[in-house]
Write a structure and sequence with these properties.
CATH superfamily: NADP-dependent oxidoreductase domain
Number of strands: 12
Helix content: 25-40%
Order of helices and strands: EEEHEHEEEHEHEHEHHEHHEHHH
Strand order of the largest sheet: 3-4-5-8-9-10-11-12
Number of helices: 12
Length: 282
Amino acid sequence: MKYKTLGQTGLRISCIGFGGSIIGGYGWGKVKDKESIAAIHKALELGVNFFDTADVYGLGHSEEVLAKGLGYYRKRVVIATKVGVRWDKRKKESYKDLSPEHIREAVEGSLTRLKIDCIPLYQIHYPDYNTLPIETMAVLNELQREGKILYIGCSNFTPVLIKTFQKHIRLESAQERYNLLDHTIDKRLVPIYRKMKMSLLAYSPLAGGKLIKNKKLKEIALKYNKTPIQVAIRWILDNNIVTSAILGIRTPKEIEEDVGALGWKLSAEDRLIFNHFRGIIK
């Protein structure tokens, strides 16, 4: 396993991150907790030490399964969870809430479900334009001082929001959609990450599965005796701004395949092809 430093912290996290959206169960078809736990065990065995989840995944179920799967290792790995997206059971739709009241309630819920005393990386899931940023920042600062969260990250933020938040709190990471089909943040956000020494945590590295069956990607994968999934992940990790690629995991076999993206490099020629991949995919 390869590890990189998270932002300006001393935390070293695995370049392959275990994404906890699927183990939450909701919206992913039939997901068995037993298999999810087996996948977590396999990830630990392979050296994965970065586990990303959110309080809204399965309405807390993802955090509970993750805690059970990690067991003793809960306090020895880097757990990242998120706050700010809530579920309206009556309307059956999500909405954003970064109010101080909700964040305080949410952090206690996550701590309980994860069975830890301090959350290593607490991430703002999405912006909430109904709450003043200064109110959100104030409560996050308080939670840091109280020792309930260690470091703060953001997700799906605009350049303006990142700059605004960085004036009052330290954001160590940004989690963004980043893959062969969608890397628009290269020009829009990556320069800001570099300037502010933030880590990029890449989610949706397989573009929701769109890349797996692509003919051109299969051709290139054959050259390296790798799978299309491994090549797609390798392309992400070859971008040095990326600290970790977060993969949604369902089974032990999946995490084994994902880790196969490590230990080799794409040629400069193939990287050049991929730079124009959005235009040639069919």
